[in-house]
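Chain A, query sequence.
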Amino acid sequence: MRFKIIPVLCGAALLAGVSACQTTSGTGGGSGSVSSGTSSGGASSGGQSANRQTLDEPIFLASMTSTIPHGQSIDTPGGDGFVCAPPVVHLTWSVQPGANFNLAHQDSVASAFREQGLSLVKGSTSTFKSDDPASEVDLLLAGTVFEYKMRSCRWGWDETYSGDATVKIRWELYSQYLDEVLFDETFVTEFKERRYRLQITDILTKTFEKSAHELAGNPRFREAVASASQADGARQALVQKAAWEPLRLDGPALRRQAFTANPDPVLDATVVLRSSTGHGSGFVVSSDGYILTNAHVVGRSSEITVRFRDGREFNGRILRRDERRDVALVKIEARGLPTLPLRSAPVKVGEEVFSIGAPLYESLSATVSSGIVSALRPGARKGYDVIQSDAIIHGGNSGGPLVDRNGNVVAIAVSIITDSAEKFGSGISMFIPIRDGLEKLELDVN
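Chain A, predicted structure.
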C-alpha cells in the first residue's frame, strides 16, 4: 500500500456538479505524433482488421489526468437538427487539474482494447484496498487530457441528444520491468452522433472510448506492447533458471530497552523507498545494506531510490521479490548502517506494537503509530497468514516495520481495510509476519 497516483476511486461522471476525489501532481505537455479521426454513431473507428493479432500482455490503466482548468466551459449548444434546444445545464469540466480519474473510464478503455485484441486489467472499486493491480502487471498506461470540446443538441423537451465532441489525449505506456516509457503520442479524436439517442454524458464517454480504440489499433502502440511481452518472457526464463540460494545475513541482537525510552535507533533504521509511481517504506536488516519492504512498493523495477531519516539517499537494487507473499529484498552499497533486530518468537493477541513508516507523504517519514495485536488471521491474504492490528497505517506505510514494545521487528506493513475511496487507515491494518517474509525470500538473519 504505497501512496502514488494509482489507483484512486473517483466519481463516474466528469461534468457539472461532480468533483474529483483526490488531487495529485499533474502531467505536462504532450509529445510524439498526433493522429485524428472521425466516426458517426459509435466509438469504433475505421481501419479495424477482423484478423487483428491478439496480444496477451496485460495493461493497467494507471492514470487518467487532465490539464483543463476546473470549471472551464466544455460545451457549445448547437447542432444540425430542426428543433435544437440548449442543454438544461451548462456543462463545465469539474475534475481538478492532475486529479486521477482512471477508474471512471476503465470500462470504456477495456471495451475498446478488447475489440482490438488487447487485455486491460481493471482496478477494483471494492472498499478492500489490499491488492494493487500495478504490482501484478508490467505495462502501465497513462492518459493526460489537454482539451475537450463538445457541441450538443437536445431534442425538444426530451433528454436525448445528438452532438460532436473532440478530445486531445496524450497516451503513455510505461514498462516497469524495463523502467522505460515505450510509447508516448498525443491523439486528437473526433466523435459524431447525428441521431437523437444519447444522454449528454454518453457523448463524453464515447469520445474517450473512441480515443482508446484508436490507441489500441495504432501500429506503434501495438509494437510497444509486443516488445514488452518478449522482454517479460526472457526475464521470466532467466528468473526460473537462477533459483535463489539461501542468503545468510548478520543482524543485531534483540533490543531489551523499551522502544519509547530510546526510539531513535529504530527510527534511523527505517527508510523511504521512492519509485517512478510513488513511495513506500522499508527497514534495514543488515548493516551492509540489505533492506526489507513489500514487493508492491518496488513494483517490477530493477532499481529504486532509498532515503534515510538523515536525508542520505542511495540507489537500491532489487535482489529478490515474492509478489504473492508481497515481500522484497533491496541492496544498497553502504556499510555501518543502523539496523533493526528481527524477533522470531510469534506475537500474541493483545501485545503492544508500534508501526513505523512514511504515511501519505515522504516528508512524514519516521511516523510512529501505536496499538495492539488485534487478531491473528491465518490464510486471510492470498492464502497467507497476516497479523491484524489497530496501529493505524496509511498509503506510504507499506513495507515499514511493525515492532514490539522493545523495538524488535515482528511484521511488515502490507495493507488496510477501509470503507473510504482514499488510502487512509481506519484501524484495521494488516501485517506480514517477519518469519514468513524471511522464509519466502530465502533469508537467514543471524
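Residues 1-51, 124-131, 237-242 have pLDDT under 50 and may be disordered. The two ends are 29 Å apart (CA to CA).
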